[in-house]
Structures are given as C-alpha cells and as structure tokens.
Design brief:
Length: 220
Amino acid sequence: MSHYLIFAFGIFVLSASHATALPFNTLWQLGLDDTFSTPFAQEDYLSNNAPGSANLKDDDYYLAGVYPAPIGTVSNDENITFFERALSSGDPRNRVHFPLTAPQASQTSQLKITLDFMNGGAWTGSSVPGYSTHDITVKFNGTTVAIRNGITRNTTITVLVSASSVSATTGGNVLQIERTAGGTGGFINFDFLKLEVNSTALADVDGVSIWYKSDRLGFR
Ligand SMILES: [Ca+2]
Ligand SMILES: [Ca+2]
Ligand SMILES: [Ca+2]
C-alpha cells in the first residue's frame, strides 16, 4: 500500500470516529416536516419591534429561558399557536428567542439552522396565480447568516455557523427570518424550523479541526 493510500485511509477512520462520537442534537424544533402549517397560526398582519411579547401572538416567539428586561424569566415555551405561520409583504419578520447553555455557546460549538418554506403565493385584493417570488434573509443575534433571493418554489434553507461567529450567549439569543422583498403582496409559509447544536464540533482534538475535515475534505 502506498503512503498516500495509508494516509487517506487514516483520515477516513479518524473522521468516521468523530462523526460517531459527536452528533448534532436538536435543541428545538417548531412545527413538523409534514407540509402543514399547523400548529402555527395565521399571522396578525402587524409588524412589531423586538422584544415583543412572550404571551401574545406577534413577531416574537419565546422558548423557555431567562431574558433581559422587560421579558425576564419565561417558565414555559410560548404557546406554539402564537408563532405566525407565514412571512408576508405586510408582516415580513418572525423572531425565535432561545437560551443556550455555556457549552452550546462556546468556541467549540457549531449550530445548524434549518428553515423549511412552503406554499408561497400572493394576494393583491384577490389571489395572484403562482408561487410569487420571495427574498429571505436570516440573522442570528443580528449577524446575517443567510440570504436567499428569488425563491419561487418550496425551499429548505440550511445554515451551519460557529457559535462564536454569531455572538452566541447563555442569555437570550434571537434568530430572525425576514422576507425582505419579492412579488407584490407575496407570502410564504413555514413547514418547520429547527436548530441543532454540536457543542464540541470545533474542538481541535488532533491538530486538524473537525470543521476543516468536514468542510475541506468532504467527510462528515
Ligand atoms: Ca406579525
Ligand atoms: Ca409572542
Ligand atoms: Ca409543518
């Protein structure tokens, strides 16, 4: 066996062992991957600034945690029917607020955001045929982590970020999803939203970070 093959095999075994030992865990999921908007509710057609309310249907949805004033302690996840089912021209933003543990917010932590969009359309006094077009921007603690413009069909946005790159904190974190532009009167619904975490994904176990192996060498 050539030295090259031995080297390649060694990398593969190393990566496979990491993949087994360090999975992503689901931190939260809103809705199911089932092509239905329920349990989300019809949007309120109003746009409000953060922090909004942890007890009312508005642009801000809170998972249990401790947040800066005036929100304070949220003992239970907000009623899921207070999460607005769609982003639209007149009500373009949803925000999800959630805490992280110290390991989840650490330098070695990696976060995976999944946003599943479906059932786009437009309403301009009457229904406009077709899916319309939708420009979506995703921000994590104010840092832009994804821009997908010109969406014209059901689309899943998946984003992998390091916790440190989005100023992750053990206090309140916020994921904002905004329909920034698109067809007049447009709207697009959520199927589900998910945040996964791997607290040690970026740990430098052997001198070659797992991020590098996954990103550059193509291993999982
Ligand atoms: Ca709203
Ligand atoms: Ca709310
Ligand atoms: Ca669903």
